[in-house]
Amino acid sequence: MARKLLLEHINVPGINTLDVYRQKGGYRAVEKALKTLTPDEVVEEVKKSGLRGRGGAGFPTGMKWSFLAKPEGVARYLVCNADESEPGTFKDRYLMTYIPHALIEGMIVSSFALGANTSYIYVRGEMMPQIRILERAIAEAKAAGFLGKNILGSGYDLEIYVQPGGGAYICGEETALLESLEGKRGNPRIKPPFPAIAGLYGCPTVVNNVESIAAVVPIINDGGDEYMKIGIGRSTGTKLISASGNLVRPGVYEIELGLPVEEFIYSDEYCGGIANGKRLKATVAGGSSVPVLPANLTLKLANGEPRLMSYESLSEGGFATGTMMGSGGFIAFDEDQCIVRNTWNFSRFYHHESCGQCSPCREGTGWMEKVLHRLEHGHGKMSDIDLLVDVSKKIEGNTICPLGDAAAWPVASAIRHFRDEFEWHVKEPIKSLQGNYGIANYAVPIPKAEVKQEN
Amino acid sequence: MIKEYHLTMSEKVKVTIDGITVEVEPGTTILNAARQIGGDIVPPAMCYYSKLEGSGGKCRTCIVKVSKGSEKDPRPMPKLVASCRTTVMDGMEVQNITSPEVIEARSGVVEMLLINHPLDCPVCDQAGECDLQNLGYEHGLQKTRYEFERRTFERIDIGDKIQLHMNRCILCYRCVFTADQITNKRVHGILNRGDHSEISTYIQTAVDNDFSGNVIDVCPVGALTDKTFRFKNRVWFTKPVDAHRDCPTCSGKVTLWYKGEDVLRVTARKDIYGEVEEFICNTCRFDKKKTADWTIEHPTHISDTSVISSNHYETMIPLPVIQEDLRLQEANKVELEKTAKF
């Protein structure tokens, strides 16, 4: 049984209340940090732990914290990014629903480390129940003296506010989130300046994902060195994976990084294999923004070694044969699923969610969506496939924020790996409307030589 | 002499754009450094406007490649950057027209800007002085690859003098920033998201302001047009003349656009990058359309690459008096070169 740090007590009845959470060792980290450590020591522990941002980019959290500018007389802010809206990702919602105090505890420790006296949790507007849960948890923590003035007699003051967003995906981008939090339209800002220098209201700000902040709690409890021992290489600790799609047991799983993908999909401890006795055709390993991979490349690297659930192993092979850890939204497709339809669905999402600031993303996402719609509905042309690749290239890297890249990668990768299926949709429009392409050779192990050709 | 120059300018930073080195003040953007050099290496800018704080970074037409970050950190930047919002570092090397990657990406941006543009230049008042037209001409494809219906909006009247034609809008946000700067009220004037965003009500309410007419001048395309000039004439049939008047609200320095005896429209004076020199008030722009209202200065200089210059005062054929006098020939060198060119 793998070690659990965040979800250890998830099945304890009443863990969402402060009393039960305290009985299970909750708020030890707050006591330890505020009474025995200095803010810099907390930052140092997090640095030592090797914790990497769980929101998608995987930037080391400790390093992000140490970049925070600390000018005299200027407020600093910690903002928790709970605007989880990536298709396929639902781990933060799970965490906030069932064990909200883990987030509050992490917020207190992190705010203390950063010297923030006001912190915000920016929650996506659709998650109203979770907002209520968090507000109740904050009230409980405040009543118990973990929030407010002079916490635990340490002289440290902290207030945490929950801010509902308007439900825009773009507000998960940190600078758009800050704009939205300031009450403006959620358009990403042009960087530099980075939020660590000028963020919320122009003050130094750190924006962290829910899971990153919650992970600070075990780091402080057990020490950064202990945390670093879990995981593999530079991917340390545990990670919540939201598994969805055609799996026997979809849901949120806490895994130790470095778990083989094959074990994650097929073992009974985790997803329990593909539902209804079907075969795996493809996966999206880290939420809709990352490249989609066929089954053969999901389970094995191009050189035949097993692929692991870690930042490095998932991105092994670059865009040619790899994908990314992303936010941990693991979507599995069985042989009955249509990649063209799924790609269209994703690009429809990005078309709807593009903020409209940069021209390539504003116009390009809509264009891709329309072309994919045509392909899926049997009106496509052979030239459409190359057109899609070309449009996705023109969006990628040419925008202010990564939404453009996120919109381009699923399309580019789907065509890279599933070109046969796209061509079949053009050649056999009627058949493609009635049935689907099936698994084809997507699960057949790729010989090394062929991969080299692709590169 | 040169040494002294370098000593006194030691605080300045050196940047090389397409092989041309220039020394600029620290904090200058790549685009403004390029404008100091001038010529073909200046990246086109659709959304950046030097007079509007916070503008730029959105249209992506000014993207350039930074092949060397700075003297201290010579690594190239991983992505193409928006030159209007990237500040120069000492020793930075930038590629604009010398980089095929940039040209490729820019033509991609132009294509994106055009796919939902109605391309109604034949009936658009902006034609002839439209930044998008110029850009499309320089970088665009012969034929569109977009085979879908373009998005459409209803025309909106912003007050009785300005019309908003959202179909043509490229969402550069310049008018929003203008409204922001002149009114100090709300911070945004865009509704909706993505490719269905539109400039909206905020500007409609800003129309009371004395300077609201400037949104027409800052608009790089024909989305905001002057209703007092709408369909009156093509710009290349009109003759621009610089003039001024004693105006209590603005500087009163304008360009009058004549057709025969009549002043068809009044605009602010624009520099070679299409940016106004000074914002003018609505009274000057919409109400003073008689020659008697103005003190005429001289014909406006129009770039000889502009379609407007084809009908300009500066005649192609040098007058006989010039042909005989060497000093006058020297003074009219540009005109004589034009004659030779055609």
UniProtKB/TrEMBL annotation, chain A:
Belongs to the complex I 51 kDa subunit family. It is an enzyme of class 7 (translocase). PANTHER family: NADH-QUINONE OXIDOREDUCTASE SUBUNIT F. Residues 340-385 form the NADH-ubiquinone oxidoreductase 51kDa subunit iron-sulphur binding domain. Pfam families: Complex1_51K, NADH_4Fe-4S. It comes from Pedobacter cryoconitis. It comes from the Bacteria. This is NADH-quinone oxidoreductase subunit F. InterPro entries: NADH-UbQ_OxRdtase_51kDa_CS, NADH-UbQ_OxRdtase_suF, Nuo51_FMN-bd, Nuo51_FMN-bd_sf, Nuop51_4Fe4S-bd, Nuop51_4Fe4S-bd_sf. SMART domains: NADH_4Fe-4S. Its EC number is 7.1.1.-. Its cofactor is FMN; [4Fe-4S] cluster. NCBIfam families: nuoF_fam, PRK13596.1. It catalyses: a quinone + NADH + 5 H(+)(in) = a quinol + NAD(+) + 4 H(+)(out). GO terms for molecular function: 4 iron, 4 sulfur cluster binding; FMN binding; metal ion binding; NAD binding; NADH dehydrogenase (ubiquinone) activity; quinone binding. NDH-1 shuttles electrons from NADH, via FMN and iron-sulfur (Fe-S) centers, to quinones in the respiratory chain. Transmembrane segments: none annotated.
UniProtKB/TrEMBL annotation, chain B:
It comes from Pedobacter cryoconitis. GO terms for molecular function: 2 iron, 2 sulfur cluster binding; 4 iron, 4 sulfur cluster binding; metal ion binding; oxidoreductase activity. It comes from the Bacteria. This is NADH dehydrogenase subunit G. Residues 101-140 form the 4Fe-4S His(Cys)3-ligated-type domain. It is found in: Membrane. Its cofactor is [2Fe-2S] cluster; [4Fe-4S] cluster. Residues 11-100 form the 2Fe-2S ferredoxin-type domain. Keywords: 2Fe-2S, 4Fe-4S, Iron, Iron-sulfur, Membrane, Metal-binding, NAD, Translocase.
